[in-house]
Amino acid sequence: MKIPRCPAAVMGTKARSRKARYSHWEKSWEGGQVGSPEPEYRSNRNFEGGISMLCIRKWCGSGVLLLTLACTAHAFGQDATQLDEIVVTANRSETALDEIGSSISVLTREEIEQSKKAFVLDLLRSVPSLDVVRSGGPGGQTYVGIRGAKSEHTLVLLDGVRMNDPSAPGSSFNFANLNTDNVERIEVLRGPQSTLYGSDALGGVINIITRRGKGKPSGFVSAEGGSFSTAREKAVVSGGTDVLRYSLGLSREDTGGISSAGKQYGNHETDGYHATSVSTRLGVTPSRIFDVDCIVRYLDTKSDMDNGGGSGQDDPNFIVRSKQVFVRGQGRLSLFDDLWEQKLGISFSNLDREYRNDTDASHPSDLEHSSYHGESLAFDWQHILHLHKTNTLTLGVDTREEKAHSDYYSESSYGPYSSVFPKESDRITGYYLQDRISLWNAWFTTLGVRLDDHSRFGTEATYRFTSSYLVRQTDTRIKGSYGTGFKAPSLYQLYEPTYGNQALNPEKSDGWDIGVEQALFDGHAELDATWFSNNFEDLIEFDTSASKYKNTARAQSYGVELSAMVRPMDDLTLRAGYTRTKTRDKSTGLELLRRPENKFSFDAHYHFLEKGNANLEIAYTGKRQDSFFDPLTYASTRVELGGYLLVNLAASYDVTRWLQLFARVDNLLDREYEEVKGYGAPGIGGYGGVKVTF
Question: What are phi and psi of 120, to 5 degrees?
């Protein structure tokens, strides 16, 4: 998998010097809804070859160490035209990446295809400052944090639909089941983003954008099999005209899995995973100024689980069933020669989870049944006013109602226990305004403010400032942002009969980042460094002494994100990235759990014989702290998890225009490691398949 691109270093799609490419750049305001960028971007750049250089920069407490290995630059003379990089998440509208002051990474459709990865969580592992943590193998709970923030501080969007689960204790999103079917691109926006997105965006936003059909009907079917008794089948069809466009993806996955509780602890019963996915998108454009889209995604999964992590936690009949539905309808209307754009959308999500653990020979007196249901209905109306070529005003309103309920029943040697969280709901309405200013085609600034009104705790105001400045004489870009964020208490934290606390206040954060991007040799190489800092206040934690949720915690995170790209020849691209993150619980002075201080990734992609692609990925995750719960003593102990290095390979070859063979090897070195103390992780795995295009 290619290393996702850092804010300024959009490696491979950046091209030429800025002073050259900006003289040809023209904005296009047509289209571009949140989560649905226009595919026909009209901004063009040229990419000319590359140089043989690998740059990795490490930040170590008191300073920055820059290590650069440079070779000759004899490969500079070959051109390859590519499209300009356009993102939609940063400003909720199409914006050239060089105009963005916030830190953002982009995973393109090409990178997703080359990696041959089936799940979004695996694509996100190499994104700077993202911590991906999975408990066990496929189907195990998986959470993603950004820059040291909690997983529930990450807002996850699918074509504008909020995926965060209202029934989860912290309303976070579980990435375990989200596959890459029909995904066009993924944008990861780091830092507090509540000004445009409201609650849940303290750490940042992950926006997953699906494909929009175009052209003659086309598609493919593929079949893959391999280690751990894995089988995966997929079919995709898409197409479109000037009036109608469509895309549809279907997939099925079955795997025998691994022991969730970890074979290193003497557990050998494997935990399988089975999933069916449907993803579709339908769009209609009756006129140039008006279009409508409908997006639907459905996931039905069954996962085997164990009772926990560590010795003696194997369980042969602990099963989790999950059904997730995400729906969005959205329309765009452009008036007065595209000077005024309106975007209207309605979104619905429904997430159901059912846990069933009946008695068995190994657990004759242990039984557990529970279910969780969460749903959300949201409405948003946005206006974009192009007041002048130097000034764009974005304003809008969004409102969302969430509902959740759950029930739990268990039996053990201690007797039966039951708990019911009755259906509760809340509503939050936000009003936002942002002004985007462009001066001298070199200085781009945004100023934004937002007011949210929550049905329980009242109002909360947030704001954000970003700026990007281009120094064309030296091909340098300086960028930075400062913003505030908040997260409303979850329904469970507010209303759970035993542990809830209706006096809770929202969690808050403020954060800044500042960075510099340097293009070298007329854009043939690029280096990027971004420093960041975040403060979190009024964090909601469970107070064991009071058996209630309370606003008791404060935390801090800060660090640096570094990246480099070099293209020694047209067919070879090398990328490297390094993130150093320091975290601290301000109440205890201890490091936050499951946040590695050091992360490094390297990626090499080679296109060979005009028909083949090979991808090498090396990822290192450093030491981090964790908490291990002992089921025998019911005590939690703070432990240190060791660092680990993973090497993954992927390759494909187009035998004919319609037939492709592909293969992948994960964890090539067969390293034994833990992402969560006590839980297993897959060893070496090999997979191969065939793809037929029509």
Answer: -60, -35
Q: Kindly state the tokens that stand for 151.
A: 């997983």
Whether pLDDT at 38 is above 80: no
Say if CB 650 and CB 661 are below 8 A apart. no
| Residue (of 397, 332, 430, 434) closest to 91 by Cα position | 434
Could you tell me which residues are beta bridge partners of residue 458?
Answer: 454
Give Cα separations from 429 to 63, 460, 487 (angstroms). 44, 10, 13
What is the DSSP pairing of strand 154-158 with strand 204-210?
parallel
**Alpha-carbon span 515 to 436, nearest angstrom:** 20
Tell whether the model's pLDDT for residue 5 goes beyond 50.
no
Q: CB within 8 A of 691, min separation 6: which ones? A: 220, 221, 222, 652, 659, 660, 661, 662
Pairing between β-strand 391-412 and β-strand 415-439 as defined by DSSP bridges: antiparallel
- Confidence class of residue 84 from pLDDT cuts 50, 70 and 90? low
Question: CB within 8 A of 86, min separation 6: which ones?
Answer: 32, 37, 41, 43, 94, 95, 96, 97
Predicted TM-score (pTM) of this structure: 0.88
**Number of Cβ atoms within 10 Å of the Cβ of 26:** 8
E strand segments, 61-129 = 63-70, 79-83, 86-87, 95-96, 103-107
Tell me: the pLDDT tens digits for 529-551?
999 999 999 999 999 888 999 99
- Per residue in 386-403, pLDDT tens? 999 899 999 999 999 999
- Match 């998890």 to its residue by tokens: 641
- Whether the pLDDT of residue 375 is over 50: the answer is yes
Q: Which helix (H) or strand (E) holds 478?
A: strand 476-487
Percent of the chain having pLDDT more than 90?
77
Query: Tokens 């004899």 belong to which residue?
Result: 74
Burial 529-558 (b: 16+ CB within 10 A, else e): bbbbbbbbbbbbeeeeeeebbbbebebbbb
